[in-house]
Structure formats: C-alpha cells, structure tokens
Structure prediction request, 308 residues.
Amino acid sequence: MATLHIRPDVVYREVDGVVVAFSLDSGEYVSLDDIGTDIWRLIEKDGRIEQVRAAMLSAYDIDAATCDEELGSFITMLQARGLVNVDRKD
Amino acid sequence: MRVQITRRGATIDVSASEMKELHRQFHEEYCVLLNEFVEPALLVQLQEKIAAAGFFDKHNVDVGDEIRMSSDPAGTALEFAMNDPALHAFVREVSGIGPIGAYQGRVYSLLPETGMMSDWHNDMVAGRLATMVINLSTAVYSGGLLQFKRVDSDEIVTSIHNTGFGDATLFKIDHTLKHRVTPITGTVRRTMYAGWFLDKPDFLTLLKGKLDAHSVGA
Prediction:
C-alpha cells in the first residue's frame, strides 16, 4: 500500500480556509481549493492512499472511478509541485 | 511557553503571566529573546538552502557592511512563516504596536575578520513598528552582540548574545533608542534573518498575487 508524505521542505498553513503551501525545493507557492484542502488534511492525518480514498468516498457523492481519477490527478500535481512524496514500500 | 514558527504555521502558547513578563521585558529592556523560535525541523531545511544560496556585498549607510542573501526560496519561506496572523497577534500583544500589515526581512551574514558590524542606529523608517532578528547560524559565533542604549546616554541597557540555533530577538524601535551589533571576534560567521513588522503593505494581498491556484483533478 502506498503512503503519501508531505515533504519536509514544504511550509504550509491555511489562509482564508484553504491550504497554501510553499516548496523550498521549487520555490513556488501552491494554493489548494476546498476539496484539495480536505485531501491535504487527510494526508496529514494518515497518508495511506487507501485511507485517503476511503475518506473521500465517504465525504463526497462520487463513484469509485471518479474518485480514483481525481485523487490520482491531484497526487500527480502534488508530486510535480514538490509537495509530497509517495512511499510505495509501506 | 512556546512561540514558534513551524512548517505548519505559528504555534503560540503563552500564559497570561508569561505574556505580562514579555511585555515588561519589551518595554523596560527593549527586547525579548524567544528560544527555539524556529522549529528545528524547519531550521534544518532553511539552513540547507541558505548554505547553497548566493550572497552579495551590502553597505548600509551610516550603519556598516554585511553580505546579504540574494533572492532565494529560503527567504520566501521565512516571509511566509513570519506573516502568520497568530504570530502578528502575539507580537502586538507583547509590544503594544498597532495593526501589522506585513513582516519583511532579509537574510544576511557578518563575516569574521572583516570588521563587518552594525554601528548605532535606530531602524526608524516610516511604517516600521518593531524589529525581529532570527539566528540562522549553523555554529556558535563569538562577538556579534546585539546591544541597546538610550540616545541620551552611553550606558548599554541590554546586551544580547543570540547564539541559540533558531532563537529570535523581538525588539522595540523608537527615536529614544539605538541598537548596534558588535563585530564578530571568532572564526564563525553570524547569519541572521532580520526585518520589521510593518503597518503596510498587507501581506495577504501580496500573497494572493503570487498564488498559483490548483484544484483537485486539475
């Protein structure tokens, strides 16, 4: 099972109710939307992708395929922006 | 007591009696020292970036010479961390200053065996409300004392050797006070993040101009 970890070189906090993150590696800010902020909180709490996926399916009125597609796309963006690492050894 | 900037925002945990003492120190000794102000895990990340960053010579008129870090993500991260509303509220409560729009600072070093220092000055430029200096040095430096005196006296009121890693000094500025930093006497450079809490600009407005919004599934 893969696990997401917020990178240690990322500084973040909530600004006006959404997460704003700054990567020391990329030197860029990223602002998440409401759903992205919810997912970020889930990653902070328990980064196992299965847990995040289950929490999303429970919280939002979406089917599994849509959830997988959107979560996958979001994780890809977080990785590309230097905000999270994916540990596939867990 | 815990006053700290962390990777996840500022943590402020100060009792009423501790706040009362900080307020007294600020007004009677003109400064307060905040131990481990930068979370150690964040400090390590910042120090790694600063070690790899470029610095340029900077002469501050009537004050002295320093080397200043060029634009770098470490400076941006510090600025983001220092502009946390919880920290601003803490600083206002300790100091009694008016509303803070932003904290703006720069990373600089004083090098040993160069005579680099800051002579007596007062930081008084329009809009500056209070000064904060954070020790980002990676080893304990000698000399480099931050000292305060009143303009009508030569007596040193307070002398601070801020050598604790990630420790910060918050201090008062006004026209009746001056401060200086003495030369480095050993072989270790003194690296600080120094700047001011300002009445403007508004950091949130500046930040929103820099944000690159991303949505889930985008």
The mean pLDDT of chain B is 95.
